[in-house]
UniProtKB/TrEMBL annotation:
InterPro entries: Cu-only_SOD, SOD-like_Cu/Zn_dom_sf, SOD_Cu_Zn_dom. One of its GO terms (molecular function) is metal ion binding. GO terms for cellular component: extracellular region. The keyword Secreted applies. It is found in: Cell envelope; Secreted. Keywords: Antioxidant, Secreted, Signal. Its EC number is 1.15.1.1. The keyword Signal applies. This is superoxide dismutase. Residues 53-172 form the Superoxide dismutase copper/zinc binding domain. It catalyses: 2 superoxide + 2 H(+) = H2O2 + O2. Pfam families: Sod_Cu (PF00080). Belongs to the Cu-Zn superoxide dismutase family.
Amino acid sequence: MKTAFVVSLIASLALASPHGPGDSPKAVPAARTKTNPKGAAFVANFPPTAKIQGSVLASTAPSGQGVLFSIKISGLPATGGPFMYHVHDQPVPASGACADAKAHLDPWARGEVPACNASDKDSCQVGDLSGKYGNITTSGAVEKSFIDLYSSLAPGDEAYIANRSVVVHTSDKTRIGCANFLPLKI
Ligand SMILES: *[C@@H]1O[C@H](CO)[C@@H](O)[C@H](O)[C@H]1NC(C)=O
Ligand SMILES: *[C@@H]1O[C@H](CO)[C@@H](O)[C@H](O)[C@H]1NC(C)=O
Ligand SMILES: *[C@@H]1O[C@H](CO)[C@@H](O)[C@H](O)[C@H]1NC(C)=O
Ligand SMILES: [Cu+2]
């Protein structure tokens, strides 16, 4: 009896989809990307129509593991902070409409709740950069760099960020700037 129960339990676990929408957020920790190509670099430049100026550079980290993000933003308004910034799933279309960037890059369908715990980055959405590395709490200009082990610059990876976008938000989630990651031309 007991054995039969255990066997059926194991069978039902094995059948469960690893990325199903009903999974608890911690069921599938974000994969750490180990295949970032050396020297890959993409940049998202906020367009003149955005309320903020600047860029987000994403390049393979010097160690080869993870993506080095270098954020340089100016023109952050005096009110509306703290500001959040994320990699979003879709690119911004030619119209520049930030809403069309859709939701955060979340290849493992982790969802929005509970909020990302920065002490447990494995459990956060891949695209939730401010959840993992902190909100921008200043107005005006800011520079910030960090290495994210979950984002990918390897084409074909679920967490590939090129051809997607970065979005900056006020604390009420209003999108005040968005731009696509495009190959860096030196
Ligand atoms: C965040 O993660 C750390 C490390 O796993 C844990 O000790 C802490 O309790 C977590 N905080 C919350 C609010 O879950
Ligand atoms: C971005 O998408 C376009 C159109 O699908 C494709 O031609 C291009 O190779 C992609 N670029 C990258 C860096 O993946
Ligand atoms: C970042 O700001 C948002 C919006 O105010 C807030 O909900 C979130 O808790 C903040 N995150 C941290 C880690 O302080
Ligand atoms: Cu966002």
